[in-house]
User: Fold this.
Amino acid sequence: MKKFLFTLSIAGLLAPTAAFAYGEGESIPYIGRAMHLLTNEVRTDVYAAIDACGEYCHEGKHCYKPSYKALYWSDNLFRAAQFHAAMSSSITPPDYGCMQHYSPCQLVDNFAKLFPEHCDGTPKCACKGGVAKCGDNGTGMSTRIDAFGTKALGENIVASYKVDPHTMFYALFNEDSRADEAQKCGFTMNNGHRVNILGGHILIGIGHVNMIAVQDFGHTSFTINEPISAGSHYVDKNDILHFKLHYEDNANAQKAALGIGKSCKRLSLTSGTKTRGVWATTDVKDLKECTPYYYETIAENGTITRFPTTGALLYNCDKSWTSQTDELIDQCISQISDADSDNNNGSDNNGSNNNNGSNNNNGSSNDGSTNDKIRADESDKLTDDSCSATVYRPASSSLWLFLSTIPLSYGLRRARVRQKANK
Assistant:
């Protein structure tokens, strides 16, 4: 069976009254948590990710720093992203939803305050007049995101019939920039998702509804003191289940642990350094649905950090967090011996799939065959007035690349079709 994947980039359901500590929140989608982790994972070792991307990352490693600081979760940006995912997925003429950064209508004045308690983000309550049409130039991206309380710096959108974080994230990161001039750095129509992911942002929020996930990027002047910036699980294209956390702090992390069910697992440093690195394990087997888990680290100064701050994340469940911890062993970090040596039981290829790699949330994956169909839509950095769309379909003997430029103020003008030999 073919799988379809669509992406859109622009640089540029948590109740508003709820107050959660870092990493908490039942309404944060699992897809959002895992894509946040994957974002910080590639930012940790950029050159390894670019090497794994191969010829698709045509601009080359010299365009980027070896490593970038972590992006921290923002509830404001999450709500903005979740709102747009809900709006986009509710527009049904294209079966994957409406892929654009403009809202497909003029939004009501108080849409950010209404969402999600009094409005679910669909046109009937979020649009003036109660209707929307995909392709219409409604409320702009910056206006929409800013209304939730954090200044917009960028946005990526991905839609896929194969709904899992690994596939969706690497469709963004491993997009094909071979159409660009060789060694060309900076944001282009062909590398915009990757540039956003590796951008100089501080905050991120990721929403997910049905087949659509939205990454919103932003900035803050406040100091964020969360040594564990992200933690989640995902299944890679080889059907391997990974549990990982991203750590970043001035104090070295001495060891890291996963508390899952009634067991404690030592995590190994698999990329980066002890001040900015990814700690992981694949040594977790035979999990039941909704198994709770959490992460802990201990720094060289003795500081213990827990993620999420309270409660637990959930494996293979209809929600991603619970306040209940009865099934868990408390303070797992104290159960891990200092004599235990690090190993690579959590290592992976950190992005060695290309845009065709696929898996689902809970373990099944296909072979990423060359008959898979992928579509990507992008738009210019920090603008609401232009975008481009690509449809990318590898086949056994040729690679078809369909490009169309879509100035949103004028509609679709023209399309160009190119054929390249499949390498």
Remarks:
- The chain is about 15% helix and 30% strand.
- The radius of gyration is 21 Å.
- The mean pLDDT is 80.
